[in-house]
Amino acid sequence: MQNFQPIINDIVNETKRQKDKGKVASYIPELSNIDPNKFGICILDTNGIEYSAGDSNEQFSIQSISKVMSLSMAFSMIGEGLWKRVGVEPSGDPFNHLSLLEMENGIPRNPLINAGAIVISDILISNLKNPKSDFLKYVQGIANDSSISYDEKVAASEKRTGFRNYAAAYLIKSFGNLKNDVETVLDFYFHACSIRMSCKQLVKVFYIFMNRGNCLQNDNYLKLPQVKRINAIMLTCGFYDEAGEFAFEVGLPGKSGVGGGIVALLPNKFCVSTWSPGLNRKGNSKLGMLALEKLTTDTGLSIF
């Protein structure tokens, strides 16, 4: 496997030269005060060798990246029955859009938009004894890192302003696709989104999607067909209504969050995470998108 350090050093230097770093998410008050000049990147290869630069140790709110983890946990617990509750098609709409929900009888298009992740949250609540605690332990276990935690301030901030999520949850509930109390489901959902991790921690979690369902400690979390399906969903649905652009420019399955994080992977090769809080107009990290395009273009490493 090649030495990624020179290329990621170049990427950090390139991001410093960019004048337009995007705009920090303002609709979640706790995220609006983050320094837009922050940038971190970390690569973890299949041999467990780590390459990092910039603010790769600094924790941030992973937001929608957590949807992949909740999907992974739910899929491992209930298997193919999950797809009776949520679809696998790209929505083509912003992550918090509601129009398709009514047309499709409360079945979200995919598990990586807000409505889909709310249904996944409902599934986990129905199958876990202590949902929030058990989910956090699941994430900590994959990363082998007990310092990963919820950010209670961010969770509370999202709860105060998450009107569209409440609307989506009640609409889903009206079609019978939400089994638990809306407040309980959204409390779990907001906490999952609030998880704080660094780029270095994120690549350790997403290592399982790069390494056939096995974490760095070689514990198995997913069957190989499940890994294939989750990676496929990340490729087609992982970047809101910019998934096609990400596949075109970067060519890797991955997931973004409005906290500025992006994580992507090349199966059996490497996992990469970037963090830069300034977002483009589609809600994805502006510098993160640029960095990952440069990474795959300069190295020639993508799934295509």
Could you state the oligomeric state of the chains shown? single chain
- How many whole angstroms does the radius of gyration measure? 18 Å
Query: How large is the share of residues in beta strands?
Result: 5-15%
At the fourth CATH level, what is the homologous superfamily of the largest domain? DD-peptidase/beta-lactamase superfamily
**Structural class, please?**
alpha+beta
Tell me what you see in this structure.
One of its GO terms (molecular function) is glutaminase activity. It catalyses: L-glutamine + H2O = L-glutamate + NH4(+). Homotetramer. InterPro entries: Beta-lactam/transpept-like, Glutaminase. This protein has 304 residues and is of the alpha+beta class. It has two domains: 161 residues, Beta-lactamase; 130 residues, DD-peptidase/beta-lactamase superfamily (Beta-lactamase, 3-Layer(aba) Sandwich). 46% of the residues lie in helices and 11% in strands. The chain contains twelve helices and nine strands. It has a five-stranded antiparallel beta sheet with strand order 3-2-8-7-6, with helices on both faces. A two-stranded antiparallel sheet has the order 1-9. Helix 2 crosses helix 4 and helix 5 packs across helix 9. The chain starts with a helix and ends in a 5-residue tail after the last helix. The model has no long low-confidence stretch (mean pLDDT 95).
